[in-house]
C-alpha cells in the first residue's frame, strides 16, 4: 500500500524496515531462550541451544510448514495460560493466599511508590524513569499489525480481520496493561533481589519480578513452572518471527523490491532462500558468546525499538496518503460496503500518533548521550536503522527516478475484484452449512485465543 499510495521508494523503505524489525526479533528470542535455560543449568556452551533452535526453526519452516499453524496454536495456549496464571497469582497472593499469609495488597504502590528516580534525582529522575518505561513498552507492544499479514490466507478477511483487530485491542488491554499493573503489585522497585538481578544481568526467570515475588513469599515449585512456560513462549515467538520475516522478504522479491531469487519456492511452496536469509539474522545471537546475554538482549531490544517506532511512523504516513487518495477519487470512507473496519477519530489520531512516534524515534536512545553512558554499540543499535532507512529511500528514488504519487492516481482498487469473487463463493457455500452457536465459555475462548 505504501508503494501504491505514497511512492515506490517509500514502499521499499517501509518493506525493508519491517523485514529488519521481524528478523531482529529472531536472535532476541534465541538469546532469551538461552538465558531462560540458565535458570536451571550453567555448565554448557550457549552455542548448543542456539544451534539446536536454529535447526528446529529451519525444519518447521521448510519441511513441516503444514504443521506450523497447529504448532503455534498449542504454543499460544501456553502463553495465555502463563499470562492469566500470573494475574491470578497476583490476585490471590496479594489478599493473603501465600505461605507467609502476608496480605501485602497495594503496599508497593505506597512504598516506594509508583514513580521512582532513574539516572537523575528529583523530578527529572522521576520523569526519566517514566520515559524509560514508555520506551520499553514500545518494544513489548510490537505485533498488532502482524494480524494484517494473514489477510491473504484468511478464508473471509472482510469479516474475520475486523473482529481480529478488536480482539487484539482487548488482549493488549488485558495482558499488557493488566500485566504491568500486576508487576507493580507483586514486588517493590527497590527490592534487593530485583536490583541485584538487573545490575548483574541475572539469567533466566531469576530476573523476573514474579519469580522474585515467589521467592520472597517462600513459594518453591511455581518458579520452575513459570520458567518452563516462558521457554515455550520464547520458542514460539522465534518460530513465528522466522515465518513472518521470510514471507516479508518473499513479498518484497515478488514485487521487484528485493533480489528475485528470494521469491523461489520449493515443491512445498516454501520460499527456501527467504527462510535461510531470515535465519541468518539468528547468528546475531552468537554475540552472547563474547558478551553477557543480558547485554546482547539490550542491544537487540534497542534495534527492535528503533525499527518498531519507524514502522509505526511509516504506517501513519501511509494511512493519511491512502485517506487522501480516497477523498480525491470520490470514495466514501463511511461506506460500509467498501470499508468494513474504520479507526476511531481519524485522521486526527493518526496525525497525533505519527507526531509522537516521530519524536520517540529520536528520544528512545537518549541515554547514550548522558554523561558517562556513551557506547558505540548502543548508539549503532539505537539509530543506525533509522539512517539506513533514509539512505535506502534516497538511493531507490535516485536510481529508479520515482515520484510521489498524486492522490487521484493512487491505486487503491487492485485486488478488490478477487476478494469480492472469493466472498461470493464463500457465502454461497456457507448457506448449506448449519450456523455455529457459541456458549459463554466459547465466547471467552474466542476473545483469548481467536477462532
TrEMBL record:
InterPro entries assigned to the protein according to its UniProt record, in alphabetical order: AA-permease/SLC12A_dom (IPR004841), APC_YAT (IPR050524)
Major subcellular site: membrane
Compartmental location: Membrane
Domain of life: Eukaryota
Membrane topology, record value: Multi-pass membrane protein
Keywords from the named record: Membrane, Transmembrane, Transmembrane helix
Domain Amino acid permease/ SLC12A: 1-404
Single annotated GO MF: amino acid transmembrane transporter activity
Any one GO cellular component localisation term in the record: membrane
Membrane-crossing residue ranges in chain numbering: 46-68, 80-100, 127-147, 168-189, 209-231, 270-287, 299-322, 343-363, 379-399
Family designation: Belongs to the amino acid-polyamine-organocation (APC) superfamily. YAT (TC 2.A.3.10) family.
Name by which UniProt lists this protein: CIC11C00000002932
Naturally occurring in which organism (per UniProt): Sungouiella intermedia
